[in-house]
């Protein structure tokens, strides 16, 4: 499945966040305690055997993901015409949105009017049906 650049960028940011979250959790879990003061006894340490390599590997994964993110950002198309052209385009889109919004409002009002007519006809029809029914 081919994703657009924005979706890939979002996925990559999520990957960076996940890697960072896991790296911080691993460091909190496995890092040896530090002696805070000479007044305290030396802390007991039992770090995992591969602890020295874990931060390096995790950091490398975060850096790799960040580089992939940079590559995706570089691949994004540049905005044409600069800031002034973008602002003009925004004004055009807002005007177009207003026109479409007014048309939708007219359609909504027409639909509400039609609904009211249908409800009145339904009410008349049910009244007629009730009047035709013979009492028991």
From TrEMBL:
Entry GO CC: mediator complex
Give positions of region: Disordered: 30-50
**Gene Ontology terms for molecular function:** transcription coregulator activity
List the protein's name.
Mediator of RNA polymerase II transcription subunit 21
> Pfam families under this entry?
Med21
| Family, similarity comment | Belongs to the Mediator complex subunit 21 family.
Subcellular location field: Nucleus
| Species this chain originates from | Rhizophora mucronata (Asiatic mangrove)
Self-association and partners? Component of the Mediator complex.
Q: Which biological processes are named by the entry's GO terms?
A: regulation of transcription by RNA polymerase II
Q: Which InterPro entries match?
A: Med7/Med21-like, Mediator_Med21
